[in-house]
Each structure stands twice: as structure tokens, then as C-alpha cells.
């Protein structure tokens, strides 16, 4: 975190010297460099399916949008774009995002309210997409929906407030996704992975990494998994979770590693299934349980390290790291 901020600070100083006092409709270039300082990790970093990691709209121009019409125009364009969101944008329904886009909030005030982002369609894929540094509020459906076979998606450093349905849903043969350093504020159906018990077409897909997210008074689905294998849930902070933390069902394989569960009565469901769903497989290691129940486990799960390199922080360090680093305005 410190190294990242130091690099961003140097970049901002350098850009400010070049930019001088020149004004314009675009955001200051220092903000652009700051939000682009990192690269995707976890499954989103894997070279597969014709994509060498997740780069978003880096190959295209950068534009700043301040209205829903502008956001829809550039998010739905057939060419790469880095799209900067400045301030609050009120949208209606779901804005469609197609391949090769970076949608990045400027500073600490970027917000999408009233609707959400849906990646791809049956005819135009939502592959190679980055969504960072945006607050999502009052979505009329999902805040972010990754579906229709979208792959290589990085959802990072956002704030999610309650939506009508899910906050971040991944389904319909989507895969190679990383959800990292986000903050979920009292959300209900926080993160669904896998459309339904009968949608067996998801088998072999749904490879998702969830790390360093803060679930702050949220209720359920952190995540709720069907079929995905191996799914990696590590270094997340579960604080005052109302119903349950992680559910592995329908023969999914989930590794729950070095998370911190605090005041969470049911950290994990797996061997007994959940609701109408059949049991899944779940392995837990190195987690901390504070005023919380036990993590239900069962079966074996493949190692995510077969796909990508990572270093898990100790569970004890998770509350301080994640509280300080998750959400908007922290990159």
C-alpha cells in the first residue's frame, strides 16, 4: 500500500509540473495516473482465453464523463476507452459495458446512483474490463453484474451501498475475475457466484478471487458460490455479518484463507449445503474467528496458486489493513 501511494504521489508531482496551470474539461492528469498505478492480480491477472491479464481500456484514449448518456456512449463503444467518472452520475437501469474498458472514479467523490453496470451481452462480450474507485448507491437491480461469458474483469477499491438485488454478481459462464479492496456497507445480497442450481453450464467457469474486501454490517453472500472451482476467498474482513459469510454449494470448490471473522455467527456453509442448494466443498486455513461460529468445511479444493502467485497477509493483520485500504479514495 505504501509503495503504491508513493509511486502515485511521484507520478502526480511529475504530471503537475508538465501540466502547469492549463485547464480543460478533462480531470487533472495526476488523477489519471494515480488511479492507474496498479495492475490486476488474482484470477484477473491470468493469461488465458486470448488475453494476457486485464488491462481494460489502456489501449485507447481517455475521456471524462459527467452524465449517464456519456457513460453509456463510451462504455458501449466497440473500441477501448479509459472512462473517468467525475462526481455523481444518476443512471436509470443498467449501463452496458463491452470489451476493453476502464471505468475509473476521479478522487473520492465519483458515484453511480440509481442503477448499475452490466458487463457484456449475448452478442458483445464484456471482456477485459476494470472498474475502480466508484461508489455505487441505490441500484435498481445489481450494482455490478458480470455475465454472458465475460472474462478478465477487475473490480477494485469501490464502495457498495444497498441495491435492490446484488452488489457484485458473477454468472453465466463468466470467469477470471478479481474482486479486491472493496467496502460493502450494510448490503444484503452482496456477491453471488453462479446463476442458479440448474444452470450447470457454469461448470468449468466462475474462477474468481475475492481478497481484502470489507463486509461491514452486510448480510449474506460473501460470496454465495455454485459450481465455481477453485474459488479463492482470502484476507477479507467480515465485521458484524448478519446471516453468513461464505456458502459453497452445488459441488463448488472454495478456499477460505486468512480471513478475519468478527461477530459473524455462521462464517461458512458447505457440507450441509445452503437453502435449496446441494453441498459444496470448502477448505479453510489460517482464518481468525472472533465472537464468531465455526467454519463448516468438507471435501478438497484445488490450489489457486496453480493459476497465479499471491501472498496472503496474516489473518490478525486483516482488520487494520483492510479498514485502512478498502474502498473509494484509497488508491
TrEMBL record:
Q: Where is the signal peptide, in residue numbers?
A: 1-19
Sorted alphabetically, the keyword list is: Carbohydrate metabolism, Lyase, Polysaccharide degradation, Secreted, Signal
Q: Which domain of life is it from?
A: Bacteria
| Key word Lyase present | yes
Task: State the Gene3D superfamilies in the record.
Answer: Single-stranded right-handed beta-helix, Pectin lyase-like (2.160.20.10)
Molecular function as annotated in GO: lyase activity
* Domain Pectate lyase, chain residue ranges per copy: 58-267
Q: Which Pfam families match?
A: Pectate_lyase_4
Q: Where in the cell is it found?
A: Secreted
Query: Could you tell me which InterPro entries the record lists for this protein?
Result: PbH1, Pec_lyase, Pectin_lyas_fold, Pectin_lyase_fold/virulence, PEL
Principal subcellular localisation of the protein? secreted
Family that this chain belongs to: Belongs to the polysaccharide lyase 1 family.
Name-wise, this protein is Pectate lyase
Q: What is the lineage of its organism?
A: Bacteria, Bacillati, Actinomycetota, Actinomycetes, Micromonosporales
Amino acid at each position: 500500500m505504501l509503495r503504491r501511494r508513493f509511486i502515485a504521489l511521484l507520478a502526480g508531482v511529475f504530471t503537475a509540473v508538465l501540466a502547469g496551470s492549463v485547464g480543460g474539461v478533462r480531470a487533472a492528469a495526476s488523477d489519471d495516473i494515480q488511479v492507474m498505478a496498479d495492475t490486476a492480480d488474482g484470477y484477473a491477472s491470468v493469461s488465458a482465453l486470448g488475453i494476457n491479464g486485464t488491462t481494460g481500456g489502456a489501449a485507447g484514449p481517455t475521456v471524462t464523463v459527467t452524465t449517464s448518456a456519456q457513460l453509456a456512449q463510451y462504455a458501449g463503444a466497440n473500441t477501448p476507452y479509459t472512462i473517468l467518472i467525475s462526481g455523481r452520475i444518476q443512471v436509470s437501469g443498467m449501463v452496458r459495458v463491452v470489451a476493453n474498458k476502464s471505468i475509473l472514479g476521479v478522487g473520492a467523490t465519483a458515484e453511480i446512483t440509481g442503477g448499475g453496470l452490466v458487463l457484456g451481452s449475448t452478442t458483445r462480450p464484456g471482456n477485459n474490463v476494470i472498474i475502480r474507485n466508484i461508489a455505487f448507491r441505490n441500484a435498481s437491480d445489481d450494482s455490478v453484474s458480470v455475465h454472458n461469458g465475460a472474462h478478465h474483469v477487475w473490480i477494485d477499491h469501490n464502495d457498495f451501498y444497498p441495491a435492490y438485488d446484488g452488489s457484485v454478481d458473477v454468472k453465466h459462464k463468466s470467469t477470471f475475475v478479481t474482486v479486491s479492496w472493496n467496502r460493502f456497507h450494510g448490503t444484503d445480497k452482496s456477491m453471488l457466484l453462479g446463476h442458479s442450481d440448474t444452470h450447470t453450464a457454469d461448470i468449468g467457469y466462475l474462477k474468481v478471487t475475492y481478497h481484502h474486501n470489507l463486509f461491514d454490517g452486510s448480510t449474506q453472500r460473501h460470496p454465495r458460490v455454485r459450481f465455481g472451482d477453485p474459488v479463492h476467498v482470502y484476507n477479507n474482513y467480515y465485521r458484524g455479518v448478519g446471516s453468513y459469510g461464505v456458502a459453497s454449494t452445488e459441488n463448488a470448490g472454495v478456499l477460505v484463507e486468512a480471513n478475519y471473522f468478527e461477530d459473524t455467527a455462521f462464517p461458512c456453509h458447505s457440507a450441509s449445503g445452503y437453502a435449496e442448494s446441494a453441498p459444496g466443498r470448502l477448505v479453510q486455513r489460517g482464518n481468525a474467528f472472533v465472537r464468531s461460529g465455526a467454519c463448516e468445511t468438507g471435501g478438497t479444493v484445488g490450489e489457486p496458486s496453480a493459476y497465479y502467485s499471491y501472498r496472503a497477509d496474516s489473518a490478525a493483520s486483516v482488520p487494520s489493513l483492510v479498514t485502512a485500504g478498502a474502498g473509494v479514495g484509497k488508491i
